[in-house]
Amino acid sequence: MHLPPGLAGLPWGDLDFLGWRDPGAPDRSYLVAPRGDGLVGVTLRVPQGVRRSFTKTTVCSVCVTGHPGSGVSLLAARRAGVLGRQGNTVGTYLCADLACSLYVRGRKRSQLAGRHEETLPLEERIARTVRNLDAFLDKVLEGEGEK
Ligand SMILES: [Zn+2]
């Protein structure tokens, strides 16, 4: 795993999870999130065949930030356990730069910012982001521990 550049300078207090793209492999991203009493790390890949077909979906399914065109990317994680060994993946639409936490907090702005102003209070947007991410991780880790 290639660690993200500038790790020490990251605004950890403002991050619900850490996500970054592999600088050596543009189709690969990593996501590390708190889970239970530890951390879980997931490798995400752009599924083959959809690389250039940017769909109409331009809303991140974790932080619900709207982006133009390629700002949202379909990323797939291999499922845990036997399902993953059978090649099963779970896909989700994510901010292509995986900076969901920063978009939610307004520390980073989408090019569509302003057009989709959210009325939800910040705490609820953060809670929703964590919930959405958890639901995704639930699916990824479903088969964990199965032989
Ligand atoms: Zn996002």
From TrEMBL:
Residue ranges of domain Elongation factor G-binding protein C-terminal treble-clef zinc-finger in the record: 1-140
Protein name, UniProt field: Elongation factor G-binding protein C-terminal treble-clef zinc-finger domain-containing protein
